[in-house]
Design brief:
The protein is mainly alpha-helical. The protein is 56% helix and 4% strand. It contains 12 helices and 3 strands, in the order αααααααβββααααα.
Length: 302
């Protein structure tokens, strides 16, 4: 069943709101749009404005029969909650029907991370003789040295770099600005990439101003996060590392290593750009689990 013209307009305006005002990622916007369209189709001929709290609860009971994961259910509820808050804010509805609507509690899995030797194994198996290879090595050095999200790294422009002070300014979730610190080793790779390797891209447009992207593909345009993920997967598959490794695993490894070496939790929170310390505290559990593992393996009476 197709949506009414009014519903289509609501969905389109909602997408613009998510992109412009909330600064949601393209992935999240697509997911929220799909969730809202599915809900509006379920409403059938009823207008979105007519849905009350009971009707929305009825829909949530309906989708539970599909055995979605808690994460997916939480996202669907969040999409509906955000949609109706938007409608209420725009005075398209008189009352907010999602007040008191809660998402199911998600079980927190401990983040996966790489050991020091595993990091070195990955880095040392990147062929840096080609421009793309050297670029990829530089990217992974930076991910591990800074804890940046892959979207933050892909979005870097030259104006974000302050390498004299070993600093990079990044814009994280919600366009929040923060400064990450760069190790000398990662900085050396980055400086050589910029001065020597980046200009070797054959199709490079002559643009190295402040608004130019730092990391580019073979045609000279900004390198996208999916290309970074593909490069990591290719390396991990090649060395047959028995772990699923993503850019976020490098971020987890960065945080875990800092805490293992005695870094203050608040400092790690600041470097990661977490809005809440509770998001950072999960890494303390990782460190504790690793301590227990070492204890069990090495203590004679464990």
């Amino acid at each position: 069943m197709s949506l009414s013209e009014t519903s289509k307009r609501y969905v389109n305006d909602f997408k613009i709101y998510l992109e412009v005002e909330r600064n949601f990622s393209k992935h999240t916007i697509r997911a929220y749009e799909s969730d809202i369209v599915a809900f509006l189709i379920w409403l059938d001929t009823a207008a979105p404005e007519s849905a009350n709290h009971a009707k929305i609860k009825e829909y949530l009971l309906f989708i539970q029969r599909f055995n979605y994961s808690k994460t997916t259910l939480s996202r669907k509820i969040s999409a509906i909650r955000t949609f109706y808050r938007y409608l209420y804010r725009e005075r398209l509805i008189d009352a907010n029907p999602v007040s008191g609507l809660h998402s199911p509690k998600k079980s927190k899995n401990l983040p996966k991370f790489l050991t020091g030797p595993e990091i070195e194994q990955i880095l040392n198996n990147i062929k840096i003789e080609t421009p793309a290879g050297y670029r990829n090595r530089t990217i992974l050095e930076l991910l591990y040295a800074t804890g940046m999200r892959v979207s933050e790294l892909a979005g870097l422009n030259f104006s974000n770099l302050n390498l004299d002070e070993n600093e990079i300014t990044v814009f994280g979730k919600g366009a929040k600005e923060r400064i990450v610190l760069v190790s000398n080793r990662a900085k050396d790779f980055l400086e050589r990439y910029i001065k020597t390797v980046r200009p070797m891209i054959p199709e490079l447009p002559v643009r190295t101003d402040e608004n130019s992207p730092v990391f580019i593909n073979k045609t000279g345009y900004r390198l996208q996060p999916q290309s970074i993920r593909a490069a990591i997967k290719e390396i991990v598959d090649k060395i047959q590392l028995p772990k699923v490794v993503t850019p976020h695993v490098f971020r987890h490894s960065f945080a875990t290593k800092l805490l293992e070496n005695g870094a203050d939790l608040r400092v790690v929170q600041e470097l990661l750009g977490h809005a809440s310390i509770s998001n950072t505290q999960i890494y303390t559990h990782v460190s504790t689990e690793r301590l227990k593992s070492v204890y069990d393996k090495t203590h004679p009476r464990a």
